[in-house]
Amino acid sequence: AVVSTQSTGVSVLRSMGGGFGAFMGTSMAFISDITDKNSRTSRIAIADSMLQLGALFGTFIGGQLMSHAAWFTTPLICVILNALLGFYVMFVIRNPQRVKTPKADSLKEMMTQMVDVYTTQSRNRTRIWILSAAYLFHFTAFLAYAGFFVNYLLMPPFNWPADRIGLISSISSIANFLLVLTVPLMRMAKIPETLIAAVSCGMCAAGFGVVCIAKSFAIITIANILKGGSGVALAVYRARLSKVVKPNQYGQLFMVLNSFESLAILISSVGLYQIYLLTRKWFSGFAFIILAVLEFTAMLLTLWDGYLAKAQGDTDDSDPQLVIQDGDEDQLIIPDQFNANGETVRISSNSSSVRA
After folding, report:
1. What is the pLDDT of residues 264-279, one digit of tens each?
2. What does the pLDDT read at residue 67?
3. Count of CB atoms within 10 A of residue 72's CB?
4. Cβ distance 246 to 322 under 8 Å?
5. What is the C-alpha separation between 175 and 129, in angstroms, rounded?
6. pLDDT of amino acid 262
7. I need a surface site. Which of 96, 180, 203, 320 has the fewest CB within 10 A?
8. Sign of CA dihedral 138, 142, 148, 153
């Protein structure tokens, strides 16, 4: 009971600060704000790969410390690392002032600004919805798999020991880290982002399909390596979404994506996990088929977005033209085009440039 109370207290304190989601959202918004369209996908992929690497090292080091050091050593190191990170963010990193972001003085205004991400883009609105849906489906499948894969192998007919399952999970994490690191190389080779994300979703769908029928250690390990491509699609989705919204909406966009991630946690932990529990007696792999369908749907949505982008004349390295409604006339915004004062330049449909 004491441990439960302490864990709840720690969770509350983390939530009051926005938790890991707030850190990720602001980090991705910052990267989007300081990179151009040509390098953004690669930069976000590198940041995501560092997340995978940190998880690998953190899990290993934390386990060793808990086994061989005093109980307070691991929490103390976490506090020190977060303090150093906070100092670096507050006093070393300079906040870019290229785009004036509207302030939200109330929760209602903040929610309105988040909704505006999906309502003010008259030209790219469909693409934003498509990419967001693909992101939600892919992330839900990713979380659901992580949620019941271990139980799947611990229970009959497998009854595998925990160390064997842990080895598979470690191999999958390493594969995820290495595959995400290939994104910058693929972008240097001018491989289309749509193709990168679609293949990633296809790899995950294939991995889930194999897991539902495989029985051997080798085949299940290979399936988990295929599933390791999940991080590739997440990086591409984040980058592509940032390219079809206004520059002053990066923060709102990634906060919306964090909300989608919370929704994915709810769907995977409550809905899909319950389906797994209900169906495991007659076909234990049925839940993995559902995950494969989710990944296949995300792949189709990704290809649809690529088709729309091509039809609009947008490329991975160009700035999509964002048309917004402003009174009685449409205004064309070319992202990342700034004047000498660091202000966004708007090009009116019937006049010369005006300042945002």
Report:
1. 888 887 788 788 888 8
2. 76
3. 9
4. yes
5. 30
6. 83
7. 96
8. positive
- What was the pLDDT predicted at 344? 44
Distances from the Cα of 151 to the Cα of 154, 209, 283, 290, 294, angstroms: 5, 17, 14, 17, 21
Nearest alpha-carbon partner for 144 in 267, 316, 289:
267
* Predicted local confidence at residue 20, as pLDDT: 66
SS3 per residue for the chain: CHHHHHHHHHHHHHHHCCHHHHHHHHHHHHHHHHCCHHHHHHHHHHHHHHHHHHHHHHHHHHHHHHHHCCCCHHHHHHHHHHHHHHHHHHHCCCCCCCCCCCCCCCHHHHHHHHHHHHHCCCCCHHHHHHHHHHHHHHHHHHHHHHHHHHHHHHCCCCCCCHHHHHHHHHHHHHHHHHHHHHHHHHHHCCCCHHHHHHHHHHHHHHHHHHHCCCCCHHHHHHHHHHHCCHHHHHHHHHHHHHCCCCHHHHHHHHHHHHHHHHHHHHHHHHHHHHHHHHHHHHHCCHHHHHHHHHHHHHHHHHHHHHHHHHHHCCCCCCCCCEEEEECCEEEEEEEEEECCCCCEEEEECCCCEEEC
Six token digits for residue 54: 């940190």
Q: Which amino acid is at 194?
A: T
- What pLDDT is stored for residue 234 in this prediction? 94
Single out the residue of 276, 141, 287, 284 nearest to residue 204, CA to CA: 141
**Packing angle between helix 2-16 and helix 19-34, nearest 10 degrees?**
30
Q: Which residues contact 99 (CB under 8 A, 6 or more apart)?
A: 33, 247, 248, 338, 344, 356
pTM, rounded to two decimals: 0.80
What token pair was written down for 318?
């160009």
- 48 token code pair: 């995501």
